[in-house]
Amino acid sequence: MFEPVYETTPDAVIKVVGVGGGGGNALNHMVRSCQEDDIGSVEFFSVNTDAQVLRSSAVRNTVQIGAGITHGLGAGGDPNIGYQSAEEDREALTNMLSDASMVFIAAGMGEVLVQGLLQLLLKLQKAKVL
């Protein structure tokens, strides 16, 4: 008689990344609305150049980028600063996303940090680093 084989597959690794002030605020709202532990295999990360914003984040996993460029402050509305900040911490961003099955990015409209970060993430994906 034929017996079906049930293979267990690992859960997908889902990461939600809040970028900049708008994305960080969105994640803060998500995390406060439903406890992070209740979401299972979803991991939340807040990415920002602004150290003060990250210190007050409700998200456990925070990644400060561009500290050498912005000195812990914001990108000042300059997309080039956003890109340079992401490039400066390319390794941290790569490590953050390397095992992800799916990545969702939350960001505010017109966030300069997002423009720079997305450019870098697309480069890394194209180079098959992610």
UniProtKB/TrEMBL annotation:
Residues 13-130 form the Tubulin/FtsZ GTPase domain. InterPro entries: Cell_div_FtsZ_CS, FtsZ/CetZ, Tubulin/FtsZ_GTPase_sf, Tubulin_FtsZ_GTPase. One of its GO terms (biological process) is cell division. GO terms for molecular function: GTP binding; GTPase activity. One of its GO terms (cellular component) is cytoplasm. Keywords: Cell cycle, Cell division, GTP-binding, Nucleotide-binding. The keyword Translocase does not apply. Pfam families: Tubulin (PF00091). The keyword Transit peptide does not apply. This is Cell division protein FtsZ. It comes from Haemophilus parahaemolyticus.
